[in-house]
Amino acid sequence: MVALGAAALLAGCTSSVEGTASPAPTSAAPTSSSAATGTSAAPTGQVTPAPEVGPGTGAEARRIAAVSSLVTTTSPERTESCFPSGPFGSGSSVDGLYFGDGRVGQELDRWGFVAGWGNCAQDAANNGTLILVSEMSDPDSAVAAAETLNGISLELGSGDYEPLELPDLGVTGALSTGGSDSAGAPTETVQVWVPSGRMLAYAYLDAPSGGGADLATRQLTDQLALLQGFQPTPQDQVPSLPTDPLGLAPFALQTPGDNTRFTGSYDLEGYLRLAIDPVAERQLLSANGFAGSFYRTSYDEEAGLDYAVSLYTFPTSEQTNAVYNGFAQLEATAFGGTGFDLPAIPEAPCFAFDNGGGSFYQRCYVGYGSYLASIDVLGLDAADDYTQMNALLPQQRDLIDG
Q: What are the DUF7373 domain coordinates in residue numbering (predicted)?
């Protein structure tokens, strides 16, 4: 049920946590052509250096995913995935996808950026909300970074931002007015950084004219509430974080090509940050004892295809079957999939989706015992090209049936 689209996984990138894209473009992606100037002076306090980026960094990013705000909580109409989202392992990777002029990345790394996670969602008129949660060196560093970054926000884009007081958040953000969405309705844009302990939350969002301050406050109030119970991992313990605590990776098929940075284990809340419909899927999974998941994505450059394997585990086969049937129903109804019979396993629930531009993707499910798996093949030229799925789904079935 993970939201995917053609070329959604940054083709060919194999770094475990440097950042990634999700399918749909959005206006909620700040840019700047400014030179990388105006950063703060070097820290005078003791900033704990971030550990070298590695598998533990990815595990910490996925921990952060579980406490990143779901945009639909505050804006239920913003249900479409947008760019950029996913895990990050350095300030420069954040800057490269969110901002593009270097200053933000310098500040994040200056203040000990460890890992982060971004969520993005938009409505039918392309009004978007982008949330980024970053783990910094220490609380003082998070405060210092927020102060400098809120200043930089005023200079981003076309330079038409003005200060926006947000007393309920205790910071001054940046407001740009005079925009419009794809339906022609007038809009404004808000950017703001807010510290919370070692964590640093950022929001970039479009809102109806006059509503930006309220929406930013509500979105970040939800984000700060989620962070209240979160304990960042001490920097020296990040490299030893378990990357597959339930031992699920051997049961998730290795698809063609190189693994992308989404690959790893997820608890329920972390998984829901990848889900198409977090509300429906939380209800279905939690009602059936969801114990954990492993998500593997890869890109085969030679074939020009993206692949994804979602492996879920449950206490009993009855619960596995209930989710198997529930997912099949959601695909056919809520998500608009067109069912088809796969020649290799005719009884498997299989669905094809038109991704636009002459590109299609397929998703099929298999289950056995405590395991349920889905396989996606993305970037197909025809909805009925079963060559890849015919080969992969039986292999996945064999992995989980012992």
A: 54-242
pLDDT of residue 42: 56
Q: Is it true that the peptide bond before 84 is cis, omega within 30 degrees of 0? A: yes
Share of the chain above pLDDT 90, in %: 82
Query: The dihedral of CA 31, 36, 37, 43: what is its sign?
Result: positive
299 sits in which H/E element: strand 292-300
Q: Return the closest-CA partner of residue 312 out of 338, 288, 336, 278.
A: 288
Residues facing residue 196 across a β-bridge? 199
Q: Do residues 119 and 70 lie in contact, with contact meaning Cβ atoms separated by under 8 Å?
A: yes
Q: Of 88, 105, 188, 190, whose CA–CA distance to 148 is shortest?
A: 105
What is the tens place of the pLDDT at every residue in 197-214?
Answer: 999 999 999 999 999 999
- What is the C-alpha separation between 176 and 331, in angstroms, rounded? 39
Q: For 272-302, what is each residue's pLDDT tens digit? A: 999 989 999 999 999 999 999 999 999 999 9
Whole-number mean pLDDT of the chain? 89
Residues whose CB is less than 8 angstroms from the CB of residue 184 and which lie 6 or more positions away in sequence, other chains included: none
Residue with tokens 């419009």: 180
Burial call 199-227: b when 16+ CB within 10 Å, e when fewer: bbbbbbbbbeeeebbebbbbbbebbbebb
Which domains does the chain carry? 55-237 (3.40.1000), 249-401 (3.40.1000)
Model-level pTM? 0.88
Token pair 């996808």 in the structure block, residue? 97
